[in-house]
Amino acid sequence: MHVPDGFINAPVSAATGLVAAGAIAVSLRGARRELDERTAPLAGLVAAFIFAVQMLNFPVAAGTSGHLLGGALAAILVGPYTGVLCVSVVLLMQGILFADGGLTALGVNITDMAIVTTVVSYALFRGLVKVLPRKRRSVTVASFVAALLSVPAAAVAFTLIYAVGGTTDVAVSKVATAMVGVHVLIGIGEAVITALTVGAVIAVRPDLVYGARGLQQRLKLRVGGELVDAPAVAVPVAARSSHRKVWITGLVTSLVLAGFVSFYASSNPDGLEKVAKDKGIDTRTGKHATGDSPLAGYGVRDISDARVSGGLAGVIGVGVTVVAGTGVFWTVRRRRTSDTSPASVPEGV
């Protein structure tokens, strides 16, 4: 659903840019409360994983494919504020390095694919978790439903943006019907990927899943005839260090998906590309500012073998994204530490 340059006019693109900038500023502050020494590197990995899986277009209808948006997955694994930042990092890397998603449309893409999907999915997720049994399986079920509905929500958001700032004279009703229809199908794929990933992480390290925090009830002890909370049990050293295995496993998986499995992804246009072509809203698509990039189109220039070119581009993309994402989240984490250090607390507090 990467919107290219030319779909949306300059004033609305600028307005969504301001919305995106404001949301990122708020998310940077909110992420300080979500990140700790374990989840900061995990957040960088989540960004890299989303980048990798977005290369795996899957067929959803005749001549149409879809790919993960990732807002629900990121929000549930590392928190909604951090989730917005994760998807934004991915979109920035894709736009600059791979000419995927217009640079003038970056605000549109962040608003639609990072903000809308994260906010909608996490609100639905929290609501479902409150009414479902307090079990790990409920987190997976809630993840599936939240991810499923987040994709058509993004399709509706794009339609609204197009209604205000579209550069072609196509009836909004036609765009809405086509966008929502195909993205409901894409949402099923999004839901499956999200639920499987969340379920895999929660099976080995439930403490690393942000959306699962608070589900386990504290042990009660009877003292003097009254029930009181038992003291917190220290996390075993093996459990504290196993997050490295999760990180390494996730990174290797991302590299394999981007470097090898992506070659077998569907070559059909994704939902937005198909709708744009069928309805004629792509007639004013502009040339991408980084269209001459050595990695444009998810291939390495001057490498003729498509398998090698695409695989190498995917590996580079995962590497750059995990480095950039981890750098951002470690910086946010360190900022939180400095803000809460004794030296930063005014006297008398």
What does this structure look like?
This protein has 349 residues and is mostly helical. The protein has one domain: Arp2/3 complex 21 kDa subunit ARPC3, CATH 1.10.1760.20. Helices cover 64% and strands 4% of the residues. The protein is built from eleven helices and four strands, in the order H-H-E-E-H-H-H-H-H-E-E-H-H-H-H. Strand 1 and strand 2 form a beta hairpin. Helix 1 crosses helix 11 and helix 3 crosses helix 6. It is globular and about 75 Å long.
Summarize the helices and strands and which ones pair or pack.
Layout: H1 10-34, H2 39-54, E1 58-61, E2 64-66, H3 71-78, H4 80-97, H5 106-131, H6 136-165, H7 172-204, E3 220-223, E4 226-229, H8 237-241, H9 243-259, H10 271-279, H11 306-340
Antiparallel strand pairs: 1-2, 3-4
* Major sheet: arrangement of strands: 1-2
Q: Main beta sheet, described?
A: 2 strands, antiparallel
Which structural class do the helices and strands define? mainly alpha
Low-confidence stretches: 344-349
Q: Which second-level CATH architecture applies?
A: Orthogonal Bundle
**How many domains would you count in the coordinates?**
1
Short recap of the structure:
The chain has 349 residues and is mainly alpha-helical. The chain has helices spanning 10-34, 39-54, 71-78, 80-97, 106-131, 136-165, 172-204, 237-241, 243-259, 271-279, 306-340; strands at residues 58-61, 64-66, 220-223, 226-229. The chain has one domain (10-344): Arp2/3 complex 21 kDa subunit ARPC3 (Orthogonal Bundle), CATH 1.10.1760.20.
